[in-house]
UniProtKB/TrEMBL annotation:
It comes from Flexivirga caeni. Gene3D superfamilies: Winged helix-like DNA-binding domain superfamily/Winged helix DNA-binding domain. This is ArsR family transcriptional regulator. It comes from the Bacteria.
Length: 329
């Protein structure tokens, strides 16, 4: 990571979990173009190299900057990859990029300056490359639903500052906790604070892939950093349970495919009757979210709730046991 993050305001931060397949595909393109290190299994790396290699000479701008049309607005709902590619196709030239190219003209390679001067050609090469990159990994997003649901639960349960610091350090490769700072490993990193709202989103990649989305801070007497981190992308934990070391898909979990990962974990936790509080703890959900998923499963007839004294106990019905025998064991 190229940023040192100031964690002193961790208690004030709202962490939000989001799925961003477009940014994941863009990261694969940037990695294939040599802009940043991205850990990918062999089959993916070879296929991406085959598909994107013809466009690499026109993608060298990504070594210096991600232009606005290729960025996602962290404050809006993510667009689908196809929607974002249509947006790129209609994007106008960025005058700020032209100004920067003029200012740093002597320091930029000729090929990069040419792409800044001919931004439509760059947009075209980038869009084709991102479309090709997404075709390599598109099937894995539905298969990763269980892992993504687990990440969403983990973000939802980030409560104390110490827990948050430890989780962030565990999510982002090549970082270390040092007092109130999460330190990157680059030689001269940028320093940034955490914004009041920080989005966390996994990417389909391995270490050392990571990215930090930043915006300029409004400097005042209380603000000491010019930049604020508003989004952090990190390698999806557990990706190795979906693919082997080469990138080939592993067999799916049928119960998760049928009812989803959260409800699958609820059903699997009920090897014996549990109180609602015990169940919430077992599946790492808040009580309200546990109640919601239990209610939905109860409507299908696979669970039943019964009051026993001062507590409500939930257990699998005969239909639920049959479902587990068919798909869950």
């Amino acid at each position: 990571m190229f940023v040192d993050l100031d964690l002193r305001n961790l208690d004030e931060v709202e962490f939000v979990f989001t799925r961003r397949p477009f940014t994941s595909a863009l990261l694969h393109v940037a990695g294939t173009a040599g802009a940043m290190p991205v850990g990918m299994p062999g089959v993916w790396r070879q296929e991406l190299h085959r598909l994107i290699r013809p466009h690499v000479p026109h993608l060298q701008l990504l070594r210096y900057v991600v232009p606005g049309p290729l960025s996602e607005d962290i404050y809006l709902e993510p667009l689908s990859i196809d929607e974002k590619l249509r947006q790129i196709a209609d994007a106008p030239e960025d005058p700020n990029l032209l100004d920067a190219a003029h200012h740093f003209a002597e320091k930029l390679p000729l090929g990069v300056r040419q792409m800044i001067d001919n931004q439509p050609r760059f947009h075209q090469a980038a869009a084709r490359s991102i479309r090709d990159a997404s075709s390599v990994t598109r099937e894995f997003w539905p298969r990763a639903a269980a892992l993504l649901d687990h990440e969403e639960r983990r973000v939802d349960l980030m409560r104390t500052a110490s827990d948050r610091a430890a989780i962030l350090a565990g999510l982002v490769p090549s970082t270390r906790l040092e007092g109130d700072w999460l330190r990157g490993t680059s030689g001269t990193p940028i320093r940034a604070r955490l914004a009041r709202r920080v989005e966390l989103f996994p990417v389909l990649a391995g270490a050392p892939a990571s990215l930090v989305v930043m915006e300029r801070s409004l400097r005042d007497s209380l603000q000491t950093h010019e930049w604020a981190a508003v989004g952090i992308g990190y390698p999806l934990p557990g990706l190795g349970t979906l693919i082997d070391e080469t990138g080939q898909p592993l067999p799916e979990q049928p119960l998760e495919t049928l009812v989803g990962s959260i409800r699958s974990s609820v059903l699997m936790a009920l090897d014996r009757p549990l109180g609602m509080g015990e169940l919430a703890q077992a599946v790492q959900l808040t009580p309200s979210r546990t109640t919601y998923h239990v209610e939905q499963l109860e409507r299908t007839g696979v669970l039943i709730r019964q009051r026993q004294g001062n507590r409500v106990v939930v257990e699998r019905t005969a239909r639920g046991e049959n479902l587990m025998n068919l798909f869950g064991r």
